[in-house]
């Protein structure tokens, strides 16, 4: 604080008063439709992003939706860019609320007037309208290839659209504890992590196979077998030197050790290797992701019911422990060759395995509930909406809007709400009722996981072993046998 009391240097001669730049400037964005029916008020950088993905008619018909979609999209890109490579964390309602506040603040910041795909800001043009030749009323699907590629490049930055709050706490620490945490160094956190990990050598417990399962920002993943039981496992090697927020990782190891359920890809063990590498051992299912089955085979209603029943048990378990998954989709449902169904991709075990064919789709919003963008009553029931979209996957082979660029898909989800289901008339009344219970735009009318577990559609579920022929067929088609 000494600099506050330094003596000012004497000025050699008097100078004219200088008026400084204004402080606490509010950059809030106000979108309006003017008397000519044109949407006005968006930053010019946002207008450039829209390209031909949202027509003039749509912009003028749903100006608030356009505003919220662009706000959410750009916040997502900004947040991911600011954080850099990191691991996904467990989410609670408190974290969702904090994220909503951050998004509201983002709209009032100068960053909101800039976009990741442009170095230009809109400081010289704060109220640009949409009456441009580049924005036609034609079919947005006719977007030229450059715009589409640009949109998909942006999608790579979204990190599953799971926006991580700057600080996530799983319990409210005391002032004394917060003070202790602020004094802890990376070495201190590594020492704490080491205390709760298995102190042994992981290679004494597990034997590496020749199969690598992939790599990501937070580390590489490889397969191994338990030397005692012969069980196949996945081991994620996390380079701790590249991880900030080691306090969160410490908290999550403690949480995940207590998260054990028959329909979750469970945490099995953890080791610290070579001082700064964390090896996280998880279950590995040999049937692959549900994605392979839905894209390559036709599922019967009884099989769809069986998958929904198992996934709902996992969702219910998480929800009853105050945790929101936020990324339910076929890629994150893994199958055993015996038909067992398990949910993965939550907490630091995210992306233990991946589907290479759909890796380019990471960060896209196709399973997202409308309230994620509108922030209205955003909570546990986002997982139920995503389950409903996953049922559409099982019926149609893909989720709605999959062929649309991410920004366009976000708009359609928010503006349209419940998507059209081409095979709706081929569904039984019980399946239609079940889908209705999942895909209610009004969150209050959408069922909970526990309510859906009692739905009559699930009473007619097939045995899990009936999934085995589909898994084998998909593996054969995809040359994964």
TrEMBL record:
Residues 19-32 form the CRIB domain. Residues 207-458 form the Protein kinase domain. One of its GO terms (molecular function) is ATP binding. Residues 110-126 have a biased composition (Basic and acidic residues). The keyword GTP-binding does not apply. Its EC number is 2.7.11.1. It is an enzyme of class 2 (transferase). Keywords: ATP-binding, Magnesium, Metal-binding, Nucleotide-binding, Transferase. It comes from the Eukaryota. SMART domains: PBD, S_TKc. ATP binds at residue 236. SUPFAM superfamilies: Protein kinase-like (PK-like). Its cofactor is Mg(2+). Residues 110-148 are annotated as: Disordered. InterPro entries: CRIB_dom, CRIB_dom_sf, Kinase-like_dom_sf, PAK3-like, Prot_kinase_dom, Protein_kinase_ATP_BS. Signal peptide: none annotated. The keyword rRNA processing does not apply. This is non-specific serine/threonine protein kinase.
